[in-house]
Design goal:
The structure holds two protein chains of two kinds. Chain A is an all-alpha fold. Chain A is 55% helix and 1% strand. Chain A has a single domain (26-198), classed as Growth Hormone, Chain: A (Up-down Bundle). Chain A contains five helices and one strand. Chain A is globular and about 50 Å long. Among the domains of chain B are: 115-189, Immunoglobulins (Immunoglobulin-like), CATH 2.60.40; 196-279, Immunoglobulin-like, CATH 2.60.40.10; 291-382, Immunoglobulin-like (Sandwich), CATH 2.60.40.10. Chain B has eight helices and 24 strands. A five-stranded mixed beta sheet of chain B has the order 1-8-7-3-4, with no helix packed on it. A four-stranded antiparallel beta sheet of chain B has the order 9-10-14-13, with no helix packed on it. Classes of the chains: A mainly alpha, B alpha+beta. The interface between A and B is medium-sized, with 33 and 32 residues. Chain A: This is Cardiotrophin-like cytokine factor 1. Chain A: It comes from Fukomys damarensis (Damaraland mole rat). Chain A: In complex with CRLF1, forms a heterodimeric neurotropic cytokine that plays a crucial role during neuronal development. Also stimulates B-cells. Binds to and activates the ILST/gp130 receptor. Chain A: Its main location: secreted.
Chain lengths: 215, 455
Amino acid sequence: MLACLCTVLWHLPTVPALNRTGDPGPGPSIQKTYDLTRYLEHQLRSLAGTYLNYLGPPFNEPDFNPPRLGAETLPRATVNLEVWRSLNDKLRLTQNYEAYSHLLCYLRGLNRQAATAELRRSLAHFCTSLQGLLGSIAGVMAALGYPLPQPLPGTEPTWAPGPAHSDFLQKMDDFWLLKELQTWLWRSAKDFNRLKKKMQPPAAAVTLHLEAHGF
Amino acid sequence: MASSSGAFSLLLGLYKAQLEPVGGMSGREPEKARVGGKSFLSQVTAAWRGGSILVTGLNYRGLSAEREQQQRKGKCTSQTTRQMAAPVPWACCAVLAAAAAVVYTQRHSPQEAPHVQYERLGSDVTLPCGTANWDAAVTWRVNGTDLAPDLLNGSQLVLHGLELGHSGLYACFHRDSWHLHHQVLLHVGLPPREPVLSCRSNTYPKGFYCSWHLPTPTYIPNTFNVTVLHGSKIMVCEKDPALKNRCHIRYMHLFSTIKYKVSISVSNALGHNATAITFDEFTIVKPDPPENVVARPVPSNPRRLEVTWQTPSTWPDPESFPLKFFLRYRPLILDQWQHVELSDGTAHTITDAYAGKEYIIQVAAKDNEIGTWSDWSVAAHATPWTEEPRHLTTEAQAPETTTSTTSSLAPPPTTKICDTGELGSGGGPSVSLISVPVTLALAAAATTASSLLIW
């Protein structure tokens, strides 16, 4: 089972204070965060393809549809439709932040075991980008005045190797990690769309009828 | 009991009696002549009783003494005065015919409903005549038409190489008594081939629908059964109220990593088939095309067209799930499309239209992040604004004013390529009405070159 106890993340350097002069509000950083999720989703597509091929069949088969067993500690993107719609901004951002924190930690574990140098390079690159996304989400939360989620006291996590289990089960865990990561990136895009619309002033929509004629 | 032919000859007799005035048409009371009423029917009954044919199942109440009198005559007599002679015989005939039909069906209707049988196209089938012996003398009929005796094997009907035209109601009768022994309603068809199943979400995140069809017809009734599994959970697929090969599923959870599996089985009297598809929530998202695509010329702008459209009405939440759009346009006379992708907004201005040419414009939609593009919308047509040609002769004589004219009827490069005498040697574009069809022809002829030059 995946046992990700990463010490690094919960001690992220404090987000540098935003330059308050001429502060355009959280809008641009939400847009930036949204753009990052799109970039990461694109990057993940090629990374996942390569990694699943490395795992070999059946993991790289398009119809592979295993039951979700194990990998219980993975943060799940799936949520009831009405619950998702009615999430307040703080909760929405917090859920995203916590999810990616965990996912990044697991990915780093993956990197440790990866067999080929090329895979390790791709994974490392992706981890850096994912770190960037985390920082971006933290920035939005700070701009909106929300506190960053902190780990519970007394459960100070340290990296420890999980209980040994079969090679196949390990591969299953890897498969679900990548799947969950991809789904989270899709969900985040929708989350940040929603946040973007809420932050946007209503008159910002540009209409063609205002365009000057005849020049 | 007299045979059916006997009954018919009696009826004929009765008809004839109707048409000829009978001696008894004298001073009878008019009230006896109840057209179509009980008295005629009673007379019919009486006449038939006279002919010693039992009529079962017909309910004639109250034979009165007068009708008993008629019974002895054995004829359907008209009891009216001469003035009513014309309508009364016809009414009597109509009643007789109706009664005869009832009697006939009573005698010859099958005792049980026809046996329904399904057989495969191209196969051979032997239809036994019910429980009759093999050597019984029978006649077969299909849909009332006699069948040749060479198709018979004893009392059984043998059909080779069944075709669709063989479907019908087959009946076998005892040859002499014409008693109906057995009926078979034969349907010729095929077992079902593997059905074609597809699912799509045009209402994301509300739900998705699945639709199916058979690649080739079976010609006989089929039943379909659809099951939807999300992991191990069974989901309900509600039948579409209008379309019988479609059902709808509602999403309970979004952003699921578990695939959906939709299975369909089809069966009919001749066979069975099934198929299944598996997919992720995101891969089947495909919106409906944008609606109400309208293209308008922009006044005083001969190379512009303003296009507007609306998000499809079936897309439930464009705020949280925004759509992006893809616009394509071309002049009718060219085959190559221009494309523009738009990440938001439902309007766009084309600024590079060929002046004076009619354009065809279409728009497609896609969720910003997931799924596939919709089909192309219904096409909009528009022609850019053109200036009213006024003083034609003066304009045509204006030398080398290409730079200043914005109301040219011909795109400049076209005239350079096809340097015919009519348009002059690289001079200003002629604005005469004659040059317009020429220009159109030139544009059509120089498609690739002109587009290269313009772009």
